[in-house]
């Protein structure tokens, strides 16, 4: 089923075989016990990306321009930081702006969905001859697995989306490639059937291991090792099934996040971060508003605002916000000009992102656009600047190199640097 984006971006497909294969590819040696995961040290750094897919409007979120020809019908409201105003469509976020840093001067170059997403997630413009890894793979590689018994790079896709991205790690290899969960759920057939007793399952597993060991002795290779390991890792994922069961949360918590898909997915993201996963990406769709931009943003931001605030509060209450970088981004913004269908079109030249948590100076605002939002007026930044900032915020050196095939490749774009004004 296609996503309900205006541009009909196609999701991927998930299956038990796919999960086992990807788990093999992940090659995460030694999953931690559930007990170790529950005792995860609060100092472990993590990254959460909330991806507003389709291209969220900066004018209806972080950089409103009320009472101008481009501003639209919504007001700008006061926030918890005197002098900083955001759209009235984000009343709950407004009360927590002291926890956020806003970047209002982003020029990400491309107005294409696929290219824009890649630019935002890699911090690079497209270059011939090389594919750069996405931030999720980089975070999983450099932050490590921590205390988690789960993959280090997980993306939660909206209802109708499913499967494994697989290509986001590029030269970093399959160990840190993203595992995607359609509708926030692992495949239903991953777990042991209810009518199969534990003893029978254990006996079947022992027999399988015996056959595999016999096969591997004569045909041992990296591929067979990965295939064999996939089942051991899948077993451990099964032991972590409770992490995916958000029904274990109280009704009060579920209500705070919202009884809709995005609320459930963001609650799952919090549980995954709590379990020690290094990187989680949650997508919220339907922001490609070429028509009826204002009605769509009322609906979509109505879903986004309350659970986003609940997440920030939960991370703060659990002592995790100072070690978890939260980034709200999209693949592009939307045109200041309102078209004849009351929509806004693709726009990458002057838009906004928001950050919170680890290493971020809450309440900071960097850059500005002109009075109508048609151009950056001060402190233009690129996705490369943001990528450096993400890494620095979680304590990583963004100036180091990877060495695929013994060839140095900078971790982040060497032509850019971190946005120092928002780093704590």
TrEMBL record:
Q: Which InterPro entries match?
A: Alkaline_phosphatase_core_sf (IPR017850), DUF1501 (IPR010869)
Q: Which domain of life is it from?
A: Bacteria
Give the transmembrane region(s): none
PANTHER family, A to Z? BLL7424 PROTEIN, DUF1501 DOMAIN-CONTAINING PROTEIN
Q: By what name is this protein known?
A: DUF1501 domain-containing protein
Q: Give the originating organism.
A: Gemmata obscuriglobus
Q: What is the phylogenetic placement of the source species in the record?
A: Bacteria, Pseudomonadati, Planctomycetota, Planctomycetia, Gemmatales
